[in-house]
Amino acid sequence: MSQLYFKSSPTCEYCALSRNCTENINNTSAMQNVQVLTHKIYHKGDTLFCAGDAFNALYIMRSGSAKASATTIEADEQIVDFYFPGDLLGTDGFAQKQHAHNVSFLETSSVCYISVNSVNALLTHSELGRQQLLSNMSQNTLNQQQQLMNVHKMTSIQRLTGFLLDLSHRLAQRGLSSQQFTLSMTRIDIANYLGMAIETVSRLLTSMQQQRLIQVQRRHITLVNIPEMRKICLSDLLGQTEGESDGMQHAMLSPTTDYPLSSIGGEGRFY
Amino acid sequence: MSQLYFKSSPTCEYCALSRNCTENINNTSAMQNVQVLTHKIYHKGDTLFCAGDAFNALYIMRSGSAKASATTIEADEQIVDFYFPGDLLGTDGFAQKQHAHNVSFLETSSVCYISVNSVNALLTHSELGRQQLLSNMSQNTLNQQQQLMNVHKMTSIQRLTGFLLDLSHRLAQRGLSSQQFTLSMTRIDIANYLGMAIETVSRLLTSMQQQRLIQVQRRHITLVNIPEMRKICLSDLLGQTEGESDGMQHAMLSPTTDYPLSSIGGEGRFY
DNA sequence: CGTGTACTTGAAAAGGTTCAAAGAGTGTGG
DNA sequence: CCACACTCTTTGAACCTTTTCAAGTACACG
């Protein structure tokens, strides 16, 4: 029926379907059945969809950020993912033809809307589209498994450090600073996502600041010693390196963001 | 090119692609480009594929059981899933075009082999096939998230109880007894999967037996008081109900396996 | 019948949570 | 412009669940 087409925008180059986009734009014969995607602005606290809502569309973040959460029977929430520009959203709906998550925005955000009809058309007609969707969904599962593994095998310091590095990496992929950023989520969100008490998050951030690993001021974070943070992720050596933090902090002056590269439309997580 | 076709077998009715199977069999015109799937026998400890192996095929368990594990950088393993007859396997390969897991068998097992070509053909030509695959993969992610949520919100007693109920439920769906079964995995596997020490698993099983919730003898498990086990999953009341277990154990005489129903090809987990 | 692997059990230790209280930034209305 | 209410955040101390370490038991296989 129709192929997907995104109006060009600064965000598009990071979009989960950008390669597909480009393919369509370059393929003039395909231009005839192109469907211009609509996008919409949401504000902090707005919900994109709730668990149980009919599965009508997939979404792509254009700007801003969002969180997806599931709800337990006892009605407490579990945040399962955060989304940033370019991320594909809503594939939780394929399982039961209704959404399984609540997605809400952490700040003013803009999202593209892709109706299920468009998705079906894409799957029917575009080999690349199929690949991208399957890859993305497969990667989602792997990311969740990685997350599970982290909870099982890593201490809370390692998890929090990994979380910050992951954020840094994801932002860097989108052309933003990998060393300085503003958290769009609260401590409560972070704690919930990482499966710890918010007091623990707070204590650990303070501790990391004291060790000159990060600089933290409310939501504003600066990663001061990324190499050291990476080491911590691999083996928890906090507590052993108490006194000698002064000799370390200068190593960060060469801000080589040499993260392992991966395509946006189904990227792995970095720890 | 070709559609998928499974030789009829007792297992097929529980297969992840059975509806698709039936569709093909009933559609005589589709029979011309049918591809008979091959299946192969594996033994305990054999590996189906390893992380890094080229992604050549999907697999469906016909009999037996298997486990999928990921490996951390520190080389310790994390079991991410167990598989039983009818389960679809190998979709971890879509993300990077190579497998991300190691899959090995827990007992003598038989699996169907579906080459990626067949999968592509299925996706191209069968709307139902697309639906099933996407649903299955979406459900995989949801299951992993559920698992993550369990680790964050539930005590170890709740997780282990939930694990046993989940096994019971999955076996029941396959026409086996939901009350008595033999674990094909070791305590080590269970502990690894649930993210606890094997000593904890051992202690909890003993404790549950003392409370007349289960009967356990090495790998052989009998669920004695399923209703009570369900309650424990919802709210951890072990420790409070120490002394009065005698009045409870008779409630299980009506073994109504009234689990919430769901289709095999993308089922949710039951806790 | 011995050896190895899987499993169980006990006691001490650790990591993280919970409870309690206080500090800091934000917005509202007088 | 300040005071008040509010939410988000930090910090301290006691507590608790689960882990770790250390033996010991039991079943399976040659």
TrEMBL record, chains A, B:
Pfam families documented for this protein: cNMP_binding (PF00027), HTH_Crp_2 (PF13545)
Signal peptide from the UniProt entry: none
Presence of the UniProt keyword Glycosyltransferase in the record: no
Domain Cyclic nucleotide-binding, residue spans: 21-90
Organism the protein comes from: Paraglaciecola agarilytica NO2
Lineage: Bacteria, Pseudomonadati, Pseudomonadota, Gammaproteobacteria, Alteromonadales
Annotated SMART domains: cNMP, HTH_CRP
Listed Gene3D superfamilies: Jelly Rolls (2.60.120.10), Winged helix-like DNA-binding domain superfamily/Winged helix DNA-binding domain (1.10.10.10)
Domain of life from the UniProt record: Bacteria
Encoding gene per record: fnr
Keywords tagged on the record: DNA-binding, Transcription, Transcription regulation
UniProt name for this protein: CRP/FNR family transcriptional regulator, anaerobic regulatory protein
Record domain HTH crp-type: where: 154-227
PROSITE patterns for the chain: CNMP_BINDING_3, HTH_CRP_1, HTH_CRP_2
InterPro entries to which the protein is assigned, alphabetical: cNMP-bd_dom, cNMP-bd_dom_sf, Env_Response_Regulators, HTH_CRP, RmlC-like_jellyroll, Tscrpt_reg_HTH_Crp-type_CS, WH-like_DNA-bd_sf, WH_DNA-bd_sf
